């Protein structure tokens, strides 16, 4: 069994004890002629001719198929049985993520469909189950449509620039869960460090005809701090907790130096009969921008971020296993960074979990579409809402990035509609969340934003110093590449200024990153020859950023090499190209 089929719950931020993983070997088929619907492939008697290892996409080596051919329609099938002690309970079928549109069948009957390649979804399949073995079938459509949120997934065959092999179909865990006739659908916890309160907002599935009881237990470092219950007669049940312990004015903040996590267990009951039990967690922390500073818990924090694409050589967007996730988060810290800008990807929820536990700041970035139309707008709205809803409780996520480098809004500088789209997505983040800061269009041509984030890949520190000698000039003209703000946008003066991409240094002939089967590899500017040259350039450009008086952080490109783009601090095999201690010293950690 592959390591990804581990026994831990695939969503540690929303975990139930009663679950069953469905990862592993599935039947699989390409359906280029779209014959499956006509010929009723969803029926249990139809055998699919190929085998795939779920949750790895067919383009990856680990899937067992491994081809970069474009197949817009694919099918999956497997059998499953329900645990005997789940009899009489509701059974939910959950998907971590399926790119892009999925139709789900159980025993030949459609139970539902879903659009969106980065969001979880699920269905109550109880009415469709039979005794003994059950049949599960998926039809998935993933076309090279540029209105889909694609991120770094290339829309043609092969590789191009900084775009990579795409991911189609199932790419995160599939699992079953058992609940009662009522269950939790949403549990969001909003911390308020000023009032020393945590507001718990829940959404319960099922019509509430008689009162339901919710029991809660909060613990910190294994010690119970709060316990109680409250009653609800509506599907939305809310509670505000005083986080001071036993009346004492004490409370642990979540911060990189001390990432304190409060564990929260909610149990739903009706007449003392347990219906559902979910374990999540939260951190008591605040994030804001004030007078040009990013404040974490009301204290200025200088962000030393690294860009991370979240790709692995054999598994692409899917982490090979949880150990690989932990290793990457450890590397971020060991290299001297206190945060990560997860670039153009909504990551596996376990990544954010380990950033929560290890004290790594995260910027959550919506994967880009590459054309502007109403379908793109709808996809982006849905994608941003799904991102916020799933990952609301992660204290490590301190910023949302709805747009990057005007991708999908190429005319934003002067087009009122595209400027309105950026403002809409920004306001959506404020409306749906409000506890995090926003970089509205990271890189250039920004609309109203908390972060003035500019990208500058100058090869030397002298050039960086010249580009950013005067903030007022930068805000008017940009940084020798694109204008900093869109036409008509006037900075408020409150924005925090951060160089959110720089560096991109590639090294000549350094390990696995040069093995591209003859394809040209690249970084920004000329490749350096050896470790000493790499460290010299890294120190030159990074020190120049530290010397910008109004700059309150940076994001280096990037953590690892990805396919043809070899500007990582680590190779694709996660082997460092230079002494990590020396990189850490340059980062002044």
Topology:
Blueprint: E1 19-21, E2 24-30, E3 50-54, E4 73-81, E5 90-95, E6 98-99, E7 101-106, E8 109-115, E9 121-124, E10 133-141, E11 169-170, E12 174-179, E13 183-192, E14 197-205, E15 212-220, E16 223-232, E17 236-242, E18 254-255, E19 258-259, E20 262-270, E21 273-282, E22 287-290, E23 293-296, E24 299-300, E25 303-308, H1 322-334, E26 339-342, H2 349-358, E27 361-365, H3 374-391, E28 397-401, E29 403-404, H4 416-432, E30 437-438, E31 441-442, E32 451-455, H5 461-467, H6 471-477, E33 496-503, H7 531-546, E34 551-557, H8 580-586
Parallel strand pairs: 25-26, 25-34, 26-27, 27-28, 28-30, 29-31, 32-33, 33-34
Antiparallel strand pairs: 1-12, 2-3, 2-4, 4-10, 5-9, 5-12, 6-11, 7-8, 7-10, 13-14, 14-17, 15-16, 15-20, 18-19, 20-21, 22-23, 23-24
Helix pairs in contact: 1-2, 3-4, 5-7
Task: Describe the protein.
- By secondary structure, the protein is of the alpha+beta class.
- The chain folds into three domains: 19-179, Jelly Rolls (Sandwich); 183-282, Immunoglobulin-like (Sandwich); 287-586, Glycosidases (TIM Barrel), CATH 3.20.20.
- The strands form nine sheets. Strands 30-28-27-26-25-34-33-32 form an eight-stranded parallel sheet. It has a six-stranded antiparallel sheet with strand order 3-2-4-10-7-8, with no helix packed on it. The protein has a four-stranded antiparallel sheet with strand order 1-12-5-9, with no helix packed on it.
- The longest helix has 18 residues, at 374-391.
């Amino acid at each position: 069994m592959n390591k990804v089929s581990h026994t831990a719950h695939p969503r540690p931020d929303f975990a139930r004890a009663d679950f069953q993983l469905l990862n592993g070997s599935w039947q699989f088929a390409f359906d280029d002629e779209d014959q499956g619907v006509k010929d009723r492939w969803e029926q249990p008697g139809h055998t699919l001719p190929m085998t795939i290892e779920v949750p790895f996409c067919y383009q990856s080596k680990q899937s067992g198929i491994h081809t970069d051919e474009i197949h817009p329609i694919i099918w999956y099938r497997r059998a499953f049985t329900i645990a005997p002690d789940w009899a009489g309970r509701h059974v939910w079928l959950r998907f971590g993520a399926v790119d892009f549109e999925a139709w789900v069948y159980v025993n030949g009957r459609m139970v539902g469909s879903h659009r969106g390649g980065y969001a979880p979804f699920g269905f109550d399949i109880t009415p469709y189950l039979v005794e003994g073995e059950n049949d599960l079938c998926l039809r998935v459509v993933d076309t090279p449509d540029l209105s889909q949120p694609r991120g770094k997934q290339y829309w043609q065959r092969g590789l191009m620039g900084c775009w990579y092999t795409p991911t189609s179909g199932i790419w995160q865990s599939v699992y079953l869960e058992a609940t009662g006739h009522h269950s939790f659908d949403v549990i969001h916890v909003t911390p308020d460090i000023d009032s020393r309160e945590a507001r718990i907002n829940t959404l319960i599935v099922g019509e509430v005809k008689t009162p339901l009881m919710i029991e809660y237990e909060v613990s910190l470092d294994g010690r119970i701090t709060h316990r109680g219950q409250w009653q609800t007669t509506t599907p939305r049940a809310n509670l505000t907790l005083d986080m001071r312990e036993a009346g004492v004015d004490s409370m642990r903040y979540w911060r990189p130096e001390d990432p304190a996590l409060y564990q929260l267990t909610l149990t739903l009951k009706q007449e003392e009969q347990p219906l559902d039990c979910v374990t999540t967690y939260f951190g008591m922390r605040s994030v804001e921008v004030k007078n040009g500073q990013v404040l974490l818990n009301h204290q200025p924090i200088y962000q030393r971020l690294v860009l991370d694409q979240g790709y692995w050589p054999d598994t692409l967007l899917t982490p090979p296993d949880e150990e690989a996730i932990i290793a990457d988060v450890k590397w971020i810290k060991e290299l001297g960074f206190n945060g990560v800008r997860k670039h153009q990807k909504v990551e596996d929820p376990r990544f954010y979990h380990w950033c929560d536990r290890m004290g790594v700041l995260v910027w959550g970035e919506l994967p880009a579409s590459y054309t502007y139309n109403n379908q793109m707008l709808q996809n982006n709205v849905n994608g941003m809402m799904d991102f916020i809803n799933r990952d609301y409780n992660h204290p490590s996520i301190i910023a949302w990035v709805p747009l990057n480098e005007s991708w999908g809004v190429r005319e934003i500088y002067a087009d009122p509609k595209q400027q309105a789209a950026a403002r809409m997505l920004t306001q959506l983040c404020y409306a749906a969340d409000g506890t995090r800061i926003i970089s509205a269009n990271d890189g250039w041509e920004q609309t109203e934003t908390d972060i003035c984030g500019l990208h500058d890949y100058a090869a030397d520190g002298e050039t960086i110093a010249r580009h950013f000698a005067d903030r007022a000039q930068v805000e008017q003209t940009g940084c020798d590449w694109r204008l900093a703000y869109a036409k008509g946008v006037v900075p408020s003066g409150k924005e925090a200024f951060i160089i959110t991409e720089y560096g991109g240094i590639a090294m000549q002939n350094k390990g696995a990153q040069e093995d591209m089967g003859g394809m040209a590899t690249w970084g920004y500017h000329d490749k350096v020859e050896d470790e000493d040259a790499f460290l010299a350039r890294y120190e030159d450009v990074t020190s120049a950023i530290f010397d910008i008086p109004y700059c309150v952080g940076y994001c280096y490109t990037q953590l690892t090499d990805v396919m043809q783009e070899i500007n990582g601090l680590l190779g694709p095999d996660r082997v460092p190209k230079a002494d990590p201690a020396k990189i850490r010293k340059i980062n002044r950690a």
